[in-house]
Amino acid sequence: MFRSGLAQRIVVAFVLLTLVVAGSFAVGIVVTIHVVEERLLSDDLGGDLEALLKMDTIDEWRNKPQSNQLFYFTDGPAEFALPKDLANLSEGFHEIHLEDASYHAMVGVVEGRRYVLLQDQTDFERREQFVYAIVMVGFVISLISAGLLGWLLARRVLAPVIQLAHQVRHRDQQLTLAPPLAPDYAPDEVGQLAAAFDETLMQLREALKRERLFTSDVSHELRTPLMVLASSCELLQENPTLDTRSQRQVQRMGRATRDMRDLVETFLQLARAESGQISAPVATLTSVADELVAHWREPIETKGLVLEYISCEDSGRCYNAPFLRAVLGNLLRNAWHYSEGGCIRLTLTEWGFTVEDNGAGIPDALRETLFEPFVRGEPNRGDGLGLGLSLVKRICKHEHWDIQLWSVEPHGCRFEVTLCSPRVN
Description:
- By secondary structure, the chain is α+β, with helices and mostly antiparallel strands.
- The protein has 3 domains: 6-145, Beta-Lactamase; 175-214; 280-418, Heat Shock Protein 90, CATH 3.30.565.
- It is 54% helix and 15% strand.
- A hairpin with a 3-residue loop joins strand 8 (343-348) and strand 9 (352-357).
- Helix 1 runs antiparallel to helix 3, helix 4 runs antiparallel to helix 5 (244-274) and helix 6 runs parallel beside helix 7 (321-337).
- The protein is elongated, with a radius of gyration of 47 Å.
- The protein starts with 5 loop residues before the first helix and ends in a 7-residue tail after the last strand.
- Its EC number is 2.7.13.3.
- This is histidine kinase.
- It is found in: Membrane.
């Protein structure tokens, strides 16, 4: 969930490793001190208590305990009377607190009589706390040192990676002039990454070169035969010997030739636009819509459909003519292709246009992917490849136009294209 950088991960790894190692040592030291304390003091106090119990008189008990020791037992004189706080101690070694003082206690039971020897451990506790403080300070210093060492090491280790990322990020010059990166790095993992980037960049250069050559070839090679086809169709239409059926076929050939020419021009313009070499004619929405309505009215009405064209006052705004013609033409073609009855309505507005039909509509499962290449509304209808709406979306994205798809009740769909943003009063 927390996607930190590599340097931060290295620092965190160092700190965690130190936390485990230094923490284990610190806990081990504390436990060792506690165990050694209990073992040594238990043996020491046990020996002192045993020595006291071997004495014969109470006077010897008064003189033998050390200055930091107290001796009590049950059923004895008042000066040796066992305090209530010590009466319930079990036999063996204990650590107790009496009157804001800490003591080590050794309890022994002989013939039903309880003997308790106390030894003041205030100085020992002070030294013990000092040792614990040193352990804690060392633990904190270890963590800080690990973080600092991890940061320094991360800068050292990641310096080639940071340099490579900087070079890749600032490769905004022409791809053909960008020098290779691999010679600047050692033959390690970073060098392999730089070599892989160089190889990918070389493949991209080749792809761009092929695309430019293809664009140039299409520009020079396809336009000439299309012009020949268009002029031949015009000459055939002027031939008075052709019957009505032949004239209709020639007209279809002429329309197909114009459609192919417009499509070639659209792809060329789009390829040049993406390479920054665009110089396209412009036209208003009304002029392009009038042209396409005149072109599509006959095929639409021949299929038994009704074409409704609702125009508006021309705003005078000009747009890329081939792109606008391709978008509007593809939407009209789709409406004609997928409609078996009803009407097709083209409505112009001040900010764009809508194309609405009463066709089969768009299935909900395809609504999100309809503008992807090779996706078709009805796969069994016609012989299209599903590239029309993909081209429309690509053009709209390039020209910063907005296209929306809406359902129409009881069936059908409506495409709404916004060419410019409405003014806010």
